[in-house]
Design brief:
By secondary structure, this protein is α+β, with helices and mostly antiparallel strands. It has one domain: Roll (Thiol Ester Dehydrase, Chain A), CATH 3.10.129.10. 18% of the residues lie in helices and 38% in strands. It has 2 helices and 7 strands, in the order βββαββββα. The strands form 2 sheets. A 5-stranded antiparallel sheet has the order 3-5-6-7-4. A hairpin with a 2-residue loop joins β6 and β7. The two termini are 15 Å apart.
Length: 152
C-alpha cells in the first residue's frame, strides 16, 4: 500500500479510493444517453467528465473560485482505474477528497459509485499557475489550509 504525507507530517497509509467511507464530499451525476459508446456503456471520456464534476465539487467545498484573479488551476495528471461498466440510465455518486498538498499543487482522490458499487477511481494532480508567466506558483496559506481540511 502507498503512503502519503504533507509537509513535515509523517507518512500515513493511502486510503482505499474504492471504499465509500473514505469520502466526506459527494457530488451527484447521472449517465446521459450521449455518454454511451457503441458497446452500450459510458465511454471513458464521459467518466473523465464525471470525475471533473467531483473535482469542481471539492473546489467549491474548499472555497476555490473557478476563475481567480492572477492565477489559474490546471490539471497536470489524471489517472483513472476502470473497475466496472456503467450503463444508462444510472444515478452516480462521486466521492472526492485530497490525498496530498504540495508547495504548488495538490492531489485529489475520487471514487465513482453506482449504488454501493465502485465503478472507477481516479487520482488527479492540480497545479496553481501564474496567469502571466504560466509557471507554477506557491499555494497561498489559506488555500493550503482549506485543502488540508479535506485530506482522506
Amino acid at each position: 500500500m502507498e503512503s502519503r504525507s504533507t509537509g513535515d507530517a509523517p507518512a500515513v497509509p493511502a486510503p482505499d479510493l474504492a471504499e465509500s467511507g473514505a469520502y466526506r464530499i459527494w457530488v451527484r451525476e447521472h449517465v446521459r444517453f450521449a455518454d454511451l459508446d457503441p458497446l452500450g456503456h459510458a465511454n471513458n471520456n464521459s467518466i473523465g467528465v464525471y470525475f471533473e464534476s467531483g473535482r469542481l465539487g471539492l473546489h467549491d467545498a474548499v472555497g476555490l473560485p473557478v476563475l481567480m484573479r492572477g492565477t489559474a488551476v490546471v490539471l497536470a495528471r489524471l489517472a483513472i482505474d476502470y473497475r466496472a461498466e456503467i450503463h444508462f440510465p444510472n444515478e452516480l455518486r462521486i466521492g472526492v477528497g485530497v490525498l496530498r498538498v504540495g508547495r504548488t499543487s495538490w492531489t485529489t482522490g475520487a471514487g465513482l459509485f453506482v449504488g454501493g458499487r465502485c465503478c472507477a477511481t481516479s487520482e488527479a494532480v492540480t497545479v496553481l499557475i501564474d496567469r502571466d508567466t504560466r509557471r507554477p506558483t506557491p499555494l497561498p496559506a489559506d488555500m493550503r489550509d482549506a485543502l488540508s481540511g479535506f485530506l482522506l
